[in-house]
Amino acid sequence: MNVAPDFEAFTNTVNGDQRSALKAQRTIDPSTKRALWPVPIGSTQDIEDAIFAAQHAFTTWSKTTWAARQDVLSLMHAALQAQRENMAKLLTLEGGKPIQFSEMEVDHSLRFLEFNSKQAQIQDVIVQDDDELHLSLRYRPIGLVAAICPWNYPLVLAIAKIGAALITGNCVIVKPSPYTPYSILKFTELVQPLLPRGVLQAIHGDDSLGPYLCAHPRIQKISFTGSTATGKKIMSSSAQSLKRLTLELGGNNASIILPDVDPGVVAPQVALGSFLNSGQLCVASKRIYVHQDIYDEFLRAMVDTVRSWKVGPTSGFVRDLTLGPVQNEMQFNKVMAIIENSRANGHRFALGGDRDEAHPESYVIAPIIVDRPPDNSLVVTSEAFGPIVPVLSWTDDEEVIERVNNDVTGLGGAIWTSDQARAQHFADRIETGTVWINSIEKPLPQAYFAGLKESGLGGEWGEQGLLAYCKVQTIHRYKPAVTI
């Protein structure tokens, strides 16, 4: 008999079993600042047990057929689909998204499972085959993958890693963000009956658990999504055992608006691409460069759009909200510091920026648009990861390209123009891993995703991204000489 899952009780998953702990913590609903449910704090022994289980599971899981693994991912897709409503509510409570955007995150998670379940098997590559030599490349699963996940999109970014790792024959230990552990812990629990023990495990822990996991010699690969500062620490701790790494890090992304667009059409889209999830999106446009010829009209249209949105706490799962709170106190304080810096430096606020806090019981920040602050100001040079966006003007192509590229990060960016040739010219010059043309930043399961400069190392997603979860062996097979 099937038992309905309990969405108010949370455990770690180790070797197929739900495991509690001597210590627990409660994270905060950012809409109310009230504590949510207790979640166990895993120990180093939990990690050791999970690694032992994964090593045992890998010996058989890595040898299952590709088709069998596809079937498992399809069943995982069905299990998540059956709990779409409950999972969306959980995401709203732990992350603060309006319910319709939490549903969108579940839907994107389903798309990643579906995409990976339909991926064709990675074939050996024959480099040379003649009378003397058969030279080939073989792709095989790496082994045990640690997926270390962020708090802004805790379900979809974890499932993207899980889907790619499992289809290629790896075993996975997921470490969720301590701010948003609930959704991925529950997903891991839901799919356990579909998987052999030890193939997929999830452990929530304190600040010591991540470094322990990263330094462990039996973890073969780490896939991390999060801040550049944390990514550098993970890279350092992984150096001793020379782990494979995929690091998807921060980005101070820019949108470039050319003068041939209709501000009334484009500005609302750019506004959504900047403020979606209260700006807590790694590829969100965090700097908007608008050509001087349409600057005033574009700014008015963008301000009018954002002003029309309803912003507030997401408690009650109301559907008329566009923006909810910032997810946690740390991020709230960071955004407030940037706002205060702009005030102190006399920047013009085209929208928002006053000190009145309409929702003191939550981490809601009303959206802010800053009108042409200096290029060296904090609001331009830092990745706020919150609902504050600078809008700047430009006149010369080469000048704006130089300004956009004058940043240590290079994750994504957008270009808006009706001139396709000119769009490609800009895209060729922008130093980012991904460029969107005439679209807000919408990562897709089928599109390889990687950052340049300090925005990351390696990449994931898409057919090419599966190779990030494979090791390569080169086989030189010389053919014996034939004697007569």
UniProtKB/TrEMBL annotation:
Q: Which GO molecular function annotation, any one, does this entry have?
A: aldehyde dehydrogenase (NAD+) activity
Q: What are the record keywords, sorted? A: Oxidoreductase
Entries under Pfam families matching the protein: Aldedh (PF00171)
Which residues participate directly in catalysis? Answer: E248
Q: Which reaction does it catalyse?
A: an aldehyde + NAD(+) + H2O = a carboxylate + NADH + 2 H(+)
Q: Which Gene3D superfamilies match?
A: Aldehyde Dehydrogenase, Chain A, domain 1, Aldehyde Dehydrogenase, Chain A, domain 2
Enzyme class at the top of the EC tree: oxidoreductase
Sequence ranges assigned to domain Aldehyde dehydrogenase in this UniProt record: 23-475
Note the superkingdom of the native organism: Eukaryota
Q: PROSITE patterns from the entry? A: ALDEHYDE_DEHYDR_GLU (PS00687)
Tell me if rRNA-binding is a UniProt keyword of this record: no
Q: Which SUPFAM superfamilies match?
A: ALDH-like (SSF53720)
Write down the CDD domains for this protein, in alphabetical order: ALDH_AldA-AAD23400
**The protein's Enzyme Commission number:** 1.2.1.3
Q: Which family does it belong to?
A: Belongs to the aldehyde dehydrogenase family.
Q: What is the protein name for this chain?
A: aldehyde dehydrogenase (NAD(+))
Record organism: Aaosphaeria arxii CBS 175.79
